[in-house]
Every structure is written in C-alpha cells, then in structure tokens.
Write a structure and sequence with these properties.
Layout lengths: L3 H19 L3 E6 L7 H15 L3 E6 L14 H4 L8 H9 L3 E8 L6 H16 L8 E2 L2 E4 L4 H14 L3 E2 L7 E3 L10 H22 L1
Parallel strand pairs: 1-2, 1-3, 3-4, 3-5, 4-6, 5-7
Helix pairs in contact: 2-7, 4-5, 5-6
Length: about 210
C-alpha cells in the first residue's frame, strides 16, 4: 500500500504532466557564472535564441548572488517533494519541474565545474529521484566555458547528472564547449558558438518529438 508521501508524489507527477500538456514547451538554462556580463551568459543567450527560433520558450536563470549549499542527505525531499535548504534553489527546482528541457552551463575557473553548480545539480537530482521524478525524459545537456583547460572534465562531471536522472542528452557536431578569456569574448570562438547553436536547435527539436 502506498504511503501518504508516495501518493502525493504520484499526484504531483500527474499535475506536472497535465501542466506541460496544457502549456507551451519550455527550457530552463542555468547560468553558474557569478559575473554580470559573463561569457557563460553570452553563450546561453545564443543557445536560447536558437531554441526559441524553433518555437520553444526559454528562461535563463542565474546563480549569481546565491549561496548554494551542498546536499546534506536529510532525505526530507522524499517526503515533501521539495528541498528544505533555504537558499533560493527550491524556487529554481519548481521552474525546472514544469519545464521540458534543462541546460546547465558552468565557467571553468580551476579545472572543473564551479562548486555551486555541482551542489545545485546534486540537489535538483535528489529532489527528482526522491519524489515525482520530474527529470525523467527531460531534454538537455551541459555547457562548459573556459579560457583554456578543464572543459572536457567539466562536461563529464555535469553529464553524470543527466545519466542518473533518466534524461535525454542532445548532441551537436562537437562537445558543448566555448573557449573565451576576458568577459565578452565568447563570440570570438566561432566553432564553439556554432556547436552551441546546433545543440540548442537539437534540444528544441527533440522536445517537440517527445511531446508529439
């Protein structure tokens, strides 16, 4: 017999699916850069533009100014369907829950993804897996932006989140990485930007196929 919190998860899952059927497809893009005019932001804007050109809505959310905490494995999310840590991530989780796609992007400052984006991904995944599994069949993939090294390791690190949460990762003609140094120079990496643009179009196309 199902427990009360399990019944609540089933109802929540049904309500979310109904919301998605009744509303336009949407992709949440998560910007992990703490800078205002960051290269990561520029890359996500390019990606979002391509997604919207395919008729899918987007929203870019920034972690700038937030103090994202690490998961404490309290397992409260399996009972409530939400994260109990009060740092603003739970509001982001709600937006992701009602979306069809999710694209996290991280700058690489010291060889790997920033700690806050990994803490966020771990908690987002924990809430989904412990509750209504809102990440199931969600389309997306990670993006890494760096001056030089660490991009492939960052992508591999972030891809672990997609694999364990039963998500669909869209491809492109190269890995989702952009090489950029000073703020505002991301567009100079033409190959990287074209890779991201194609990735964005593919995300939108797959979402439309999944919803058909």
């Amino acid at each position: 017999m199902l427990k009360t919190h399990q019944i609540a998860h089933v109802i929540m899952h049904w309500m979310v699916q109904k919301y998605k059927c009744d509303n336009m497809s949407k992709v949440i893009l998560l910007n992990a850069s703490p800078r205002t005019n960051s290269n990561t932001k520029i890359v996500l804007e390019e990606c979002a533009r391509e997604i919207e050109a395919e008729g899918v809505e987007t929203e870019i959310i920034s972690l700038k100014g937030k103090k994202i905490q690490s998961c404490i494995a309290c397992l409260k999310c399996s009972e409530t369907g939400n994260c109990v840590l009060n740092d603003g991530l739970d509001e982001i989780i709600e937006k992701i829950r009602h979306a069809d796609g999710f694209i996290p992007a991280a700058p690489v400052y010291f060889g790997t993804a920033r700690g806050d984006i990994m803490a966020a991904l771990q908690r987002i995944g924990k809430v989904s897996r412990g509750g209504d599994k809102f990440l199931d069949w969600m389309v997306g993939g990670p993006i890494a932006v760096a001056r030089r090294g660490g991009v492939t390791l960052t992508l591999q690190e972030m891809l672990m989140f997609f694999a364990i949460n039963n998500m669909i990762v869209a491809g492109s003609t190269y890995w989702n990485m952009v090489i950029a140094g000073p703020e505002g120079t991301a567009l100079e990496d033409s190959e990287g930007i074209e890779t991201i643009r194609l990735f964005g179009r593919n995300v939108a196309k797959i979402i439309k196929k999944v919803r058909d």
